[in-house]
Amino acid sequence: MSQIKNILFVMYDQLRHDYLSCAGHPTMRTPNFDRLAAKGVRFTRAYVQSPICGASRMSFYTGRYVHSHGAAWNNFPLKVGEITLGDHLRKAGVESWLIGKTHMSVDAEGMARLGLAPDSVIGARVADCGFDVWVREDGLNAEGPEGFYDEKRSPYNEWLKGQGYPGHNPWHTHANSGVDAEGDIASGWLLQNAVQPANIREEDSETPWLTRQAMEFLSQPHKAPWLCHLSYIKPHWPYIVPAPWHNLYGPADVVPPVRDAREKADPHPVYKVFMNNQAGQAFSKDEVREAVIPAYMGLIAQCDAEFGKLLDFLEETGRMAETMIVLTSDHGDYLGDHWMGEKDLFHDPSVRIPLIIYDPRAEADATRGTTCDALVEAIDLAPTFVAAMGQPPADHILEGRDLTPFLHGQTPAWRQAVFSEYDYSGMALAGPGYLDMEPEDARLFMVFDGRWKLIHAEGGFRPMLFDTAADPDEFTDLGASADHQAEIARLMVLLNDWARRPAQRTTISKAEIKGMRGKSRRVGVIIGAVAPEELAPDLRAKISGRPERDYR
Amino acid sequence: MSQIKNILFVMYDQLRHDYLSCAGHPTMRTPNFDRLAAKGVRFTRAYVQSPICGASRMSFYTGRYVHSHGAAWNNFPLKVGEITLGDHLRKAGVESWLIGKTHMSVDAEGMARLGLAPDSVIGARVADCGFDVWVREDGLNAEGPEGFYDEKRSPYNEWLKGQGYPGHNPWHTHANSGVDAEGDIASGWLLQNAVQPANIREEDSETPWLTRQAMEFLSQPHKAPWLCHLSYIKPHWPYIVPAPWHNLYGPADVVPPVRDAREKADPHPVYKVFMNNQAGQAFSKDEVREAVIPAYMGLIAQCDAEFGKLLDFLEETGRMAETMIVLTSDHGDYLGDHWMGEKDLFHDPSVRIPLIIYDPRAEADATRGTTCDALVEAIDLAPTFVAAMGQPPADHILEGRDLTPFLHGQTPAWRQAVFSEYDYSGMALAGPGYLDMEPEDARLFMVFDGRWKLIHAEGGFRPMLFDTAADPDEFTDLGASADHQAEIARLMVLLNDWARRPAQRTTISKAEIKGMRGKSRRVGVIIGAVAPEELAPDLRAKISGRPERDYR
């Protein structure tokens, strides 16, 4: 019987579900992603628990909904005590290693409260969402007048300096900028510069650097089985890529935007502010799309090429037979669809992700190269990994479901709907001059049952609703339609049932709860008995006898 | 300006809201509880977050709903990482001490995962829901054929042995048993024995022993301000009390049961199994009520007398001016009302509690001896204590609300409804032969808006509904009434809005969230800008310049 020894869990950042050739993109070529799809199962309806880096990743790494772990936006710390994928795997004797990005923000106050030193083994794991760190590089070395976005040390930036790249932030001035006609920095932060090649040697750019870190990891002897979370920074913005990738694609390769004038006619108030923000405005211009999308595609092509090197290496070293390989992304990118830039909302380009799972076991032979259209959530990976390592996933903690049956050609009873959330309370558009909301109100929930997609908005707004059967492009918001109130009510029942789930009852398993039933009397807690005749003889004997003394 | 230096937080166990003379009981006399009510405010509509010891207490001690902390039934551990009243008060420089019961079950697996040693200062606090332990005595030294219910060391039992009480469990054989006509142990576990005096010297019984522990605490010098949680074990079962309290009350003092034949006609399926369990059956018999209730009243009278000693001491030592005093209970006791024994469900005798708060500050002078009928929850005490110590309660963690305005004669905008929960998944009646339910389904939620009380049952049952204006005794369950479906729907909206609240977003305050808005660009994250003209000059300067080298 074949066994999975290791798991290579590859995540890209902001990679759309449909920018793979195996997913049907008409111009994008991803031969190496397709190689994996040919060996595994491609899940065509996989959704993230929040279309934003930090919150989405905390769900991947805990196997729990955002409503459960609470780290609802970038830099909202994941609270100490939350149980991670790494914790579950360590119970199975499996190490969990991080190479790349997590966007984890540490609950420093919680760690101090519990006396957890950041430089202790346990403290370091708590600070890095349960992983042991091979190398952590969040790839957000942005710097403005008020300092760096991320104060953490950047191993990649340090390495660039070691290679002779000048300045204090070559991540920006070289890896993520070009050079303009005057010889000045053409910052990758400005969308007009996406057409430039980055001012860096190709092999020194972020994606090849992370691949080499992974190769080094894979080449080491490991005593224990492992999961390696290889978490790339790209194709996330800044949208700029070194030669030759910068001109592999051009405006002719850009697919038309999925947008419709109807969407601007009477938009939902929350959608409206997102659509009108700077990213939405910019990506609504064709010249921006034609500059940016070829760079985005070049970044993906570079990712694909690097992924090919990993596959080659695993094949050449005979490791494919023992390694589960997963390819996914933390969310998508609107790229001008629906008059939007970035991610944040729940149209498919944002909330739907690529997901390919290669299972080396013989049981998966029948499904190789197939697709699966079950409703899958990002939180399903954690229990799938635990199961792959031979352990029953702890279903009182992990809220996702093991995908193994689909990999093995089975059709299990499955969920009715997927849920996703978005907390925009920390965004400018929730504040004065825009929606001006309290933090508890600036939250959205998505319920998608495979046909109907409901977006419930807190704060007193009407909902949004799309019928993806009649309207696959999600152009027609039926949230105010009198004819669809019953549909909305039906989906709200699913949402509310979900919201009432006992998500925090994590310290006792369902089997342990069932095992408690009726046991207290056997340890002497006698409730409601009037006379000794009502008791079992052994219990009656236990509370009887003759006292040695009478104090009355 | 007067200041609160210390807080004496007195909790009784299973003390009904209406078994105080100041609450209008016709025969029960509680002169010392009434003394406190004359100095403070008595809250007439205070409700617990769950009518069961463990879950209710975890809500008192965290200031959070059961749905938030997850310790939903007795011996479901409180997960490591949950922030306690003690943690909040320590941030204000206030010590939190425990004397008596918590019914806390430790998350040993979570502590091991985080490397928290039970014998470290922090580990001990985590294991005792945030308190430093003066003495912990849960008072449940039950023993059956399969061992002790509670394996923890019992300081009280050890003390009894030291006083010469014989046997290995004098808690049972002396403190909680009498002697029958043959000279044998008349166990307090059997309701027929409630009429006996306990076989113990009065001053050695549990309530005086705990009072002496408190006196010792109060007599010590304390460097820091403190909260002392004096948590009595009584009048909780076993229902037996030493002389002279055992015959202070008799059958003539027993008020008639609040029950009606209509309740048995077509009861809700969950109510039916509770009503039919052994406690319900027993307490439905008049002879049981006439035996037990005088003992229960004797236990309360003893509690009241001991409380008087505390008040005397504080008055004599001039401490009343600096000490806030709170008197409450973790839940009530049906005592045969509604054909029920014990607690568990949401009729007022079970879920409603006594609550008296004495605030020594001059601002409270105008409210002394008054009552307040605002809808109050057990979780309101934690923020009230934090506020009393001069700190703003952390409202992203604490879900209750500061009661100080009511103490100071104000009428703040207030909540629409109170919520309570009951998880019966670990009870025999959820298992085979009874309701036979999965652990996620065996849960109830109560919403009470001051008039209408809705009980929503998971697992596909219809709801229960009471109109307490037309039916103050809660005899008529309107849950199946066609005329009341709109009322049920309205209350379900309140419940579901509550269920979707961001209860786990505890690592970032609302002020911090508001402070994030629009700040990322000032640290260099530029999203949606096409050309440099769109940037502020200082930001533009930050990303510009001339690169020293050209690598393209």
From TrEMBL, chains A, B:
Pfam families membership: Sulfatase (PF00884)
Record's keyword annotation contains Hydrolase: yes
Residues covered by the Sulfatase N-terminal domain: 5-390
GO cellular component: cytoplasm
Keyword Transferase: yes
Regions crossing the membrane: none
Top-rank lineage group of the source organism: Bacteria
MF terms in GO: metal ion binding; sulfuric ester hydrolase activity; transferase activity
Record keywords: Hydrolase, Metal-binding, Transferase
PANTHER family recorded: IDURONATE 2-SULFATASE (PTHR45953:SF1)
Official protein name in the record: Sulfatase-like hydrolase/transferase
Organism of origin: Tabrizicola oligotrophica
Lineage: Bacteria, Pseudomonadati, Pseudomonadota, Alphaproteobacteria, Rhodobacterales
